Inverse folding.
């Protein structure tokens, strides 16, 4: 049985979301790696116009918010690099690094740091929001656009992967292969 402090630890929720984010991105990029490059970049009726451009957008927004969460100024070159990444292998490596950096950031948080105000440099203005709200927004953004890629994959030669088997204990068998690829254990995920 869990202790009351474990049940009320808001950091655990964000840690689980960051872990699920890493696992879902890894699974989605693995599926996309089976696409012919022409399918990856083919024009599609989607917000960003292709699977590649949607994946690029996910990474770009990750970099934008992670930069702010870490207290850094806007880095347009870093954002442009992500936006225009031309190949999936590079993009996948960059996404993995971003996901790991976000996970490390979340693992360093305390309940007090979740309510701290984050200054988000938007170039022409500075936005101020609570860290927990910024993280919630970022995870929602990721989920939304991964869902778009999932839908776009439905019109390709590659079956879309399951993207929601990562948080509860009953999903252990469904995530085992992904966990092995990442070098994670169930104990890491369930703490």
């Amino acid at each position: 049985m869990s202790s009351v402090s474990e049940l009320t630890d808001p950091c655990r929720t964000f840690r689980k979301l960051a872990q699920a984010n890493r696992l879902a991105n890894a699974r989605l990029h693995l599926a996309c790696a089976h696409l012919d490059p022409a399918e990856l970049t083919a024009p599609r009726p989607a917000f960003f116009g292709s699977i590649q451009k949607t994946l690029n957008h996910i990474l770009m927004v990750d970099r934008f918010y992670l930069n702010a969460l870490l207290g850094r100024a806007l880095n347009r070159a870093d954002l442009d690099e992500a936006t225009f990444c031309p190949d999936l292998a590079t993009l996948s490596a960059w996404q993995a690094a971003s996901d790991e950096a976000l996970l490390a950031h979340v693992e360093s948080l305390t309940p007090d740091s979740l309510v701290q105000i984050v200054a988000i440099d938007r170039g022409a203005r500075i936005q101020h929001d609570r860290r927990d709200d910024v993280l919630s927004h970022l995870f929602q953004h990721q989920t939304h656009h991964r869902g778009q890629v999932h839908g776009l994959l439905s019109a390709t030669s590659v079956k879309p992967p399951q993207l929601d088997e990562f948080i509860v204990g009953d999903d252990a068998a469904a995530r085992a292969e992904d966990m092995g690829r990442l070098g994670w254990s169930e104990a890491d995920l369930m703490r």
Observations:
- The chain has ten helices and two strands.
